[in-house]
Amino acid sequence: MPRPLTLLLPALIPSWNFFDVIAPSPRVQYGLTATAETEPKAWLEFRPRPERVSLLQMAQRLLWNPERNESLFLTSCAERLVQQPTRHSEDEIYKRIAADLAADPDTAEGPPWLWFRLVFISRDGDGLSQEVLFEALPRRRSDIAIR
Amino acid sequence: MTLDAASRLTEILLALALIQQSLEHMTRFRAEQVLFSVRIGLCVLVILGFGSPWPLVGLAGLSLVILERFQGPYNGGSDRMGLLALWCLTLSQLMPIPVGKELFLAYLGAQLMLSYFISGWVKILNPAWRSGRALAEVFRFSAYPVSEALRGWANRPRVLLVMSWAVMGFELAFPLTLLSPISLLAGLAVAATFHLANACLFGLNRFFWTWFAVYPAIIWLQGRIF
Prior knowledge:
The complex is a heterodimer of chains A (147) and B (226).
Chain A: H1 3-12, E1 25-33, E2 44-45, H2 55-61, H3 66-83, H4 87-103, H5 105-108, E3 113-124, E4 127-135, E5 139-140
Antiparallel strand pairs in A: 1-2, 1-3, 3-4, 3-5
Helix pairs in contact in A: 3-4
Chain B: H1 3-23, H2 30-48, H3 54-70, H4 76-94, H5 98-124, H6 127-130, H7 133-141, H8 157-173, H9 181-202, H10 205-225
């Protein structure tokens, strides 16, 4: 069966098992380095949540919520990367991190090598535990298409 | 509500929901802008009722290209419901006989009902949902809460226990709302409030508009059956 039809089938015969199990949750972390040989000293969370979101912002986001929806797409890509790794998911994550870095004047000109890794958070007794389940090979920022 | 009215209202609401989603892609990458500009154009034709059913057929075809582009739905469940609605409407309109048209719209309405019932069923089978722990974990560490402040809700076990049972109770009871037009409207009002809460707390705005778009199909189905 052609791939788009395979992707369509779960929509036409849906399972509707939303939130049946609360699985470990991925966070995308990235780092920048001068060379591809040395790992980043500091990993930064990509698009950390704001401390607060006002009711007005929540109402606005009903109609305009592109960043949040993109973050949810990246969560799907992260989950796919540990279940069935594909070049596509890695490309999508790299592309969106690189685009955000290029758009920010503070990071537009910076170390040339970009890294990302996926940290999965899960419950561990009464606390939480974190585990790095995927680390991508670094890419030169100038090689990532961001248009 | 007649079949034609339900079908037309569903396609207009769905086209509006798809326009809202498409506009969110217009600030990003060029390839996405092209793809979603085409989708906006086709949605406008659907709203205007121009050249029916071909703009819907075009949207259905384009949905395959978009699925391929993102290697699946861009936003999980909400996009899946959008795809289901789009394909059911398209196939309904392409059917040469009335019973065929009814069948696809009825399937869409039935799936809407199942989307609530099955979600409730899989939750109530899970002890973590019955104890309120699952919802606490959603707030504590899942990717969904829109702010760090909301994570504090994880420390309110009694509130979350009540919320868990309210959600499961509503989802499991939803099929009973089909017994009368009034109970269905009341059920859909509760459902819309539930989606609104999910949009505010978890940023799932697409669910609100996509599920709302399918409400005419279930309103028609209720009248057709009972």
